Predict the structure of Na(+)-translocating NADH-quinone reductase subunit B.
Amino acid sequence: MGLRQWLDSIEPQFLKGGRYEKYYAVYEMVDTLLYSPRTVTQAAPHARVSLDLKRTMTYVVLATIPCILWGMWNTGYQANSALAQLGLETAGGWRGWILDILGIGYSPDNLFACFVHGFLYFFPIYVVTLAAGGLCEVAFAVIRGHEVNEGFFVSSMLYVLILPASTPLWQVALGIIFGVIIGKEIFGGTGKNILNPALTGRAFLYFAYPAQMSGDAVWVPVDGFSGATSLSVVASQGHGALGSIGLDWWDAFFGFMQGSLGETSALACLIGGIFLVYTRIANVRLIAGCVLGTVAMSTLFNLIGSDTNPAFAMPWYWHLVVGGYAFGLVYMVTEPVSAAMTNAGRWWYGALIGVMCVLIRVVNPAFPEGMMLAILFGNVFAPLIDYVVVKANIQRRRRRHG
């Protein structure tokens, strides 16, 4: 008996009246994960389209692959470079034991050694995220009697990629649970949330455990190593001092710098963004609006200038490649559920996030990275933006036909 036939044979036990009726959500999750749904509408009107929720979420996960691959290599590269600077011959712990047993080594010039070392940080965080967040998703699906949506696979991947590699696994689990419950399930689940679940979980960890989520010692997972991030240098000394940490614009664009697991490479984000725009998963108005808002606000700060705040002088093209801006722009700003849904509203929504990101980065001395909070701020105002746009359209049509 094949897998398809076996799933069909046990399906009646999960349908209404069956022995395991209340666990239908679990059965449906496994079935649709392995095979395309066979259900079709039974009454008119019929809408036929090849792009369903599963395919949409699959495309988004595929778009993150460049960030995943770069993130694993860069995490290992930064860790191996730190070990070399500290004069250490092994990473220690279970990761060091694996690397020593395999004889891979810790050379920052060895592509494979860096990739494997980074993988040993990425994989446990992803497994814990899937386990903790997945259990929450299944629990709510069983209680409410609805399907387990594929949206969690996207949220889980994005959540992992915006965490520092040094994040304790118990905090990883706590953050994704908070993000799933508070960021999505209390609003009714996938398609009804007003906040991005991945960013909600990340923001919770930042404010609940700032020592593990910020500072100069959390971005490279090597005990005793401390290195300034690009934005912390800009906040204290200005973008002209980035050369002191060996970083020029092209290094930042490619992602040769410290940061969260998958946020450092603007090039990897650009590749993913092109794919999302080409497949029409991402709306280009959201991206363009955010970039225009960033350019306008940073240019305004450049013109104003400041004798005490060197971040005022950072030009817009530096904002695009440092911190988590590029990742947030491509994968978070374009998230369709929490973003504005009207075409005009998308421009204003994107511009609001771009303005807020630069405003937080430049004016708030305690928080050099502003993209996460800017996007959550935009999420809150997205319904209001759409409301204003719709009301304006109604008034305009009344005047035209009145």
In short: Residues 53-227 form one domain. The chain is about 60% helix and 0% strand. The chain has three domains: 1-38, 53-227, 273-402. Residues 395 and 402 are 10 Å apart (CA to CA).
